[in-house]
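dumping this here so i dont lose it again. seq + smiles for adenosine-5'-triphosphate
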Amino acid sequence: MSILSVKNVNKNFGGLKALNNVNLTVDAGTVHAIIGPNGAGKSTLLNCFIGRLEPDTGTVTFDGTSLLGIEPHEINQIGVSRVFQTPEIFGELSLVDNVMIPAFAKRDGIFTLNAWRQIKTETAIRDKAMVMLEDVGLAAKAGDIAGQLSRGDKRRLELAMCLVQDPKLLLLDEPTAGMARADTNNTIDLMKTIAQRGVTMVVIEHDMHVVFSLADKISVLAQGTVIVEDMPENIKGNPKVQEAYLGGAHL
Ligand SMILES: Nc1ncnc2c1ncn2[C@@H]1O[C@H](COP(=O)(O)OP(=O)(O)OP(=O)(O)O)[C@@H](O)[C@H]1O
């Protein structure tokens, strides 16, 4: 059953066709990877899922609700969370505070600093935040200041900030970018655990080891168009993919 459906989406930047009649279907409970060369339109497409960009034409539907014309926080509220390429965390706050903030935002609709001062002591939310930090392997650092974390840990923290919102759909933009291999493998394991819990994931990723370790289905974008959508085993040898994606090189 489809949870995210993209139909005939076009997006131009001036004279540049960043998305050219994109169609894509993500099935519930699957990991769906979007790959393609630099500038193919992957981030532009993801931004159309979270209200950061509005397509010029076409539809984006999540769980029966159109995602177009609604605010990013409302999209978040209905169950879509995104992990960014550059982690968006609160650098001066502790890890546990970082995870509590999105938990409150999810519960109360929108987050305000005044509310934060009053509710910071709520133990149920603090306990939930601690469970999420445990899940991503950061519980021992719960009281540390987030800005001082390593790059890999910052990404794990951001993942905890998404998971605390109990998302139905998790969007990950290059979740292992800049990580050493050991960190990448830990992240793959973590994402597998999240997938096993039934969270649908859309992953943009350049690292083919990550893509082929995780994906149930892969969409290949080239010059703003989905040129192939198929199972991983059918992607590697696809000449269209090799030509468009790597200029004829073998994946
Ligand atoms: N805000 C913008 N204004 C103008 N052009 C843009 C804007 N955002 C993206 N583009 C252009 O749209 C095209 C698609 O960019 P996009 O970032 O979506 O590609 P991508 O597949 O995510 O690339 P990468 O893998 O390098 O991150 C590129 O040519 C890019 O330069």
